[in-house]
Amino acid sequence: MKKYALILLVLSYATMNSQTIQQVDSLASKMCESFKELKEVKDETKIMMVFEKHLPAFYERAKVTSQAQADSLVNRVYFRLQRNCQAFLDILAGMEENKSDWGKLAEKPKSKLSKKESDAFFSGKSFYYKEYDGSIVNVALSSSHWIETFEDGTTSNLLIRPKGNGEFELEFLESNNNKRKNFSVKGDVYRYGIYSVAEGIYSAWVATKDNEYHSFRIYTRK
């Protein structure tokens, strides 16, 4: 099921005001627990059941004055679930074709990088990586910022903080990309690491909030 099918479900309920990120994350946390409990249910049915269970009461406590507000809210819930709920990510991964080099790791990879190789990455200027659906995200790297440009021309601005041994943090500042601006709020921090390199292609990992590790590749733009 795609995001837009969920929007139709949401819009059938009562309306609400714009909610704080704390309220949205609290809702997402409860929904995540429900996803974990429904182990024997098919993925699409599971999503419908969880949204139908939690959204009505949430909407009854608030008000919305336009469809745009409702669309904005369901976007935020959908993407914050992706950020904060590994069970929801696993469901989506089983429903959508992986057209990239993303994978799930059993544990945090041990770095095979030399200090010289690590320094070369952080002194680089231009990279790109692939989203799960195969789309390209270009990265412009400076000493303090990680700027992403997406295929539709939208951008994201993040601070980068090297932590040693190829590891680094990205702190979200702002974005005009629909997915990124609903996935993150200013100040959200994400942990990354690069652990090997061959011919300008870096093997990298990212840690989820639940300390699950996912692998992907970062390509040097030549």
Structure description:
This protein has helices at 3-10, 21-37, 43-60, 67-84, 86-95, 115-122, 178-183; strands at 103-105, 126-130, 136-141, 145-149, 155-164, 167-175, 189-198, 201-207, 213-220. It has 7 helices and 9 strands. The protein folds into 2 domains: 3-95, no CATH class; 103-220, Lipocalin (Beta Barrel).
Globally, the shape reads: globular
Strand content: 25-35%
- Count of structural domains: 2
What gyration radius follows from the Cα positions, in whole Å? 19 Å
Characteristics of this structure?
single chain; 222 residues; alpha+beta; Lipocalin; eight-stranded antiparallel beta barrel; 28% strand
Describe the secondary structure blueprint for this structure.
Layout: H1 3-10, H2 21-37, H3 43-60, H4 67-84, H5 86-95, E1 103-105, H6 115-122, E2 126-130, E3 136-141, E4 145-149, E5 155-164, E6 167-175, H7 178-183, E7 189-198, E8 201-207, E9 213-220
Helix pairs in contact: 1-4, 2-3, 2-4
